[in-house]
């Protein structure tokens, strides 16, 4: 159930890229008076923010699932040890 570190890192990097590119577009649009570019930048930055939050949620879900699986394995081991006595 563990998420692959490289997959998670790639998705986090993609989110950071969207945030940075979006902020750059937004700033350039604001400096040049290009409202469309500014709005596109804000949208891309927001997209990056959402991706980043989604990755955090995925990590927390994977962590909880792994904890739950570990607990089940421990309980099974305890039952097997009691049965062997």
Q: How would you concisely characterize the structure shown here?
A:
The chain is mainly α. It contains two helices and no strands. It comes from Lapidilactobacillus concavus DSM 17758.
SSE sequence, one letter per element: HH
Q: Largest sheet at a glance?
A: none
Mean pLDDT: 92
SS elements, strand count: 0
- From the spread of the alpha carbons, the general shape counts as rod-shaped
Please indicate the count of domains: 1
Number of helices, where a helix is a run of at least 4 consecutive DSSP H or I residues: 2
What class would the helix/strand composition place it in? mainly alpha
Question: How far apart are the termini?
Answer: 32 Å
Radius of gyration: 22 Å
Low-confidence stretches: none
Helical fraction? over 70%
Portion in strands: under 5%
Family: Belongs to the UPF0337 (CsbD) family.
Protein name: CsbD-like domain-containing protein
């Amino acid at each position: 159930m563990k998420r692959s570190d490289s997959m998670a890192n790639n998705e986090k990097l993609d989110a950071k890229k969207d945030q940075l590119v979006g902020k750059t577009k937004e700033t350039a649009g604001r400096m040049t008076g290009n409202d469309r570019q500014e709005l596109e930048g804000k949208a891309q930055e927001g997209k990056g923010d959402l991706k980043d939050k989604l990755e955090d949620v995925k990590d927390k879900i994977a962590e909880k699932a792994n904890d739950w699986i570990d607990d089940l394995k421990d309980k099974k081991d305890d039952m097997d040890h009691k049965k062997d006595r």
